[in-house]
Structure formats: structure tokens, C-alpha cells
Design a protein that fits this description.
The protein is 3% helix and 45% strand. By secondary structure, the chain is mainly beta. It has one domain: 6 Propeller (Neuraminidase), CATH 2.120.10. The strands form five sheets. An eight-stranded mixed sheet has the order 12-13-14-15-19-18-17-16. Strands 3-2-1-24 form a four-stranded antiparallel sheet, with no helix packed on it. A hairpin with a 5-residue loop joins β12 and β13. The longest helix is centred in the N-terminal third of the chain and has 9 residues.
Length: 314
Amino acid sequence: MTAFRGLVRVLGFLLTAVLVSACGDGLGASPAVQAGQTPAMAPAAHTGNLLYVADLNAGDVYVFSYPGGKLRRKLTGFQAVHYLCVDGDGHIFVDDTGASKVLEYDRTGSQPIHTFKTPNATPNSCAIDPATGNLAISYNPLGDGPGAVDVYKHATGKRTTYTTPNVFRYYFIGYDNAGNLFIDGTDMHVTFELAELPAGGQTTQAITMGTSVSLPGAIQWDGQYLAIGDQVCIECASQIDRVSVSGTTATLVGTVALTDSCDVLQYWIDKGRVIAADDCGSTVKYFSYPAGGNSLKTIASPLNEPVGVAVSPK
């Protein structure tokens, strides 16, 4: 398996179309949920903090208690599920890359309450602006040509489309606490690029980074800095670069090593913890953040190819 294959895994369909606790919510290890087991849709399946995990191979989104990791239920019916985002109400947005759409679910339902289409294109990532509630979706065309980002005001209604001067293939996007939208991807030569759509602005700008990202990963605001994932390579440990952005320059302030991870595409930062979709390890792992190091907890069964993670707070 080569680094090139790792890049193809990031693209997903863009270029071609733990141990689980049996009870309680502690961080200690306990017997795993058996593979294929689907809990009954009891009221407890929707309460408390929930961890959503998108499994590309299974084609489902598994819902676990959080932080305990008990399997509660699953969402089904996707063609090629990839990455996730969550709004202020705890609604989960699922990128169904194979169906060219993003689906919104509330915490109690098994059917989408809203659909956002990306005709003739494959959605890759989504993000919710904490300042306005706007929904942003990045995508790439099924054929040749550059990608783009659509922004839906208040996650409803008509979209506004944005392109960037430096990004050709669009991967992950994320808002900071001020409503600035950041976009990572590659140029036409498959070199990493970063761009920003400033809050309230209508024009994107290229951001120069003082560090190199090998294979683009998720973007998230960690409460102090912009966190940018780097898969590094398909067979080695992934990492998260913490950068400070001023104007059109991003400066590296620290790197979070996810020491016993492998091929982390999307992660989720939550209160001193980072939850990582460990793709080639077929697990989801919890790490201390920003300390990093070896994982603190692992969720395994029934996961097969976890690529997306998100936490929906109660």
C-alpha cells in the first residue's frame, strides 16, 4: 500500500463517481458489542451525548453513547457515506458521496429531515458556522474541473457558491469561532493548499502556511487555534497541526501526534479529547488533546472502515 493510495482514499469517490462498552459511559474498557448487533430503538438511543461514526465499507452511520462508546443504533440507506458535521441543535449532517447529497438528521429520527444536493458532484466535507448557523459543503465535480464550496444561510434555502484562487480539489472545511471558513485541499499539482472565506465576506483568499501537510485531513477550531489534520502517509501515524492565522499567513504553533493511529481522515475535538476515525485500523480512538500520544480508549466492533466522526451534545 503506498502513499499515493492514501491520497486516493482521501479523494474517496471524488475522482471516480475499540472496544465498545456494554454498559455505562466511563472511559474504561469493557466487553465489545458483537458485530452486526443493532440495539432496539429505545428512548435511551437518543439521549445524552452521542458519537456518530460513518463507516464507508458498511455504508452506515453508527451511533454510540459518548464518551462511553456503547452502540445505540445506526442510520442506513447511504450509497457511500463519508464525513459528518453537527449544528447547534445536535442535528447530524451526513455526506453521502455516492448519492451527491448531504442529509440532515435530528437526534431522534432514522430518516433525513432535509437534503442538500450537489448535482454532478461529490460532497466531501461539511461544516456549521457557530456564529450564524450557516451550512457549508465542499465538493468536487464527477468529471474534470475544480471543486467549490456551497454555503446555505441558516442551513436552509438558496445556496451561494464560492471558489478559491489556489485550491483545485476541495477536501475538508471548518469554521473558527468568529465565522471564518477555512478550506483545505490540493492544487492542480496535488500540493497541499489552504484558503479562507472571511466572515461576512464574498471573496476567498489563499493562506500561506509555514509548514507542509502531506495528505489533507479534517479542519476544526480547537478553541484557541485552527487544527488541520495530516494523514502523513497511509501506513504511518497521523497528526494534527495547530496553526495561528493572521491575515493571509498561518503559523505552526504545535503538532499533536496521534501515535498509535493510522490513516485518520476526520477527527473531532471535544473538551480535552480528540476522537479519531482510525481508518486502516478499523477503529475509533480517543486521544488526549492537545497532548496527543498513545490512545486512551478504542471502539472496535462493529466498525470496519470508519472515516467520519462527530459528537452531538445533548
